[in-house]
């Protein structure tokens, strides 16, 4: 399954950062703004070199900004060590229904961007999560990468049907 097909069918909900304790639990950095959804999560998919693997969730706790998950087939620290940096997904049809003017950041990939005057700015190639916000990686016509926070102050208008984003561009961006 390629990245585009993955984005179309699944939503990334987190990334495993490290083991937690000795009983196989893992620390997960959530990539969703709905951290509470992990409380009711019964299963998810983990992306590894063989593709998406189903994982049954047996427990959930919270610690600071992290979610601590226990998977059915991971019972010791040695096994949980092998899961570092693995991404967790759910099927789109299992995700929360979005309200008006809401969207999944992954759906912005491939959107063309213009500034408020209508000048081409580039195409959204990817995004990354930081502790402060989600950052869009936008490539302009010259191949130069621009990093833009995915916050309302910069995303003036998002039209997913037309795959277009209007940006508030600050001087020097």
Describe this structure in words.
- With 173 residues, this protein is mainly β.
- The chain is 7% helix and 47% strand.
- It has 2 helices and 12 strands.
- The chain has a 6-stranded antiparallel β-barrel. Strands 10-9-8-7-12-11 form a 6-stranded mixed sheet, with no helix packed on it.
- β7 and β8 form a beta hairpin.
- The longest helix is centred in the N-terminal third of the chain and has 7 residues.
- It is elongated.
- The protein starts with a helix and ends in a 6-residue tail after the last strand.
Radius of gyration: 18 Å
Counting DSSP H or I runs of 4 or more residues, the number of helices is: 2
Mean pLDDT: 90
Spell out the helices and strands N to C: HEEEEEHEEEEEEE
Helix content: under 10%
Low-confidence stretches: none
Q: Largest sheet, if any?
A: 6 strands, antiparallel, barrel
What's the total count of β strands?
12
- Per DSSP, what share of the residues sits in E-state strands of 2 or more residues? over 45%
Strand order in the largest sheet: 1-2-5-4-3-6
The SS-based structural class is mainly beta
What global shape is seen?
elongated
The first-to-last residue Cα distance is 34 Å
List the helices and strands and how they pair.
Layout: H1 3-9, E1 10-20, E2 25-30, E3 43-48, E4 51-63, E5 66-71, H2 77-81, E6 87-91, E7 112-115, E8 120-129, E9 134-139, E10 145-149, E11 155-159, E12 164-167
């Amino acid at each position: 399954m390629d990245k585009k097909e993955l984005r179309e069918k699944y939503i990334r909900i987190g990334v495993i950062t490290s083991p937690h304790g000795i009983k196989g639990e893992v620390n997960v950095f959530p990539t969703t703004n709905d951290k509470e959804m992990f409380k009711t999560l019964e299963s998810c998919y983990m992306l590894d070199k063989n593709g998406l693997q189903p994982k049954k969730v047996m427990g959930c706790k919270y610690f600071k900004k992290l979610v601590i998950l226990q998977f059915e087939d991971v019972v010791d620290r040695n096994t949980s060590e092998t899961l570092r940096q693995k991404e967790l997904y759910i099927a789109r049809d299992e995700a929360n229904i979005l309200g008006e003017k809401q969207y999944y950041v992954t759906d912005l990939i491939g959107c063309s961007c213009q500034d408020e005057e209508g000048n081409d700015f580039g195409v959204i190639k990817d995004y990354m999560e930081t502790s402060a916000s989600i950052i869009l990686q936008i490539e302009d016509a010259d191949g130069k990468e621009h990093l833009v926070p995915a916050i309302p102050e910069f995303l003036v208008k998002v039209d997913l049907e037309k795959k277009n984003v209007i940006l508030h561009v600050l001087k020097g961006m």
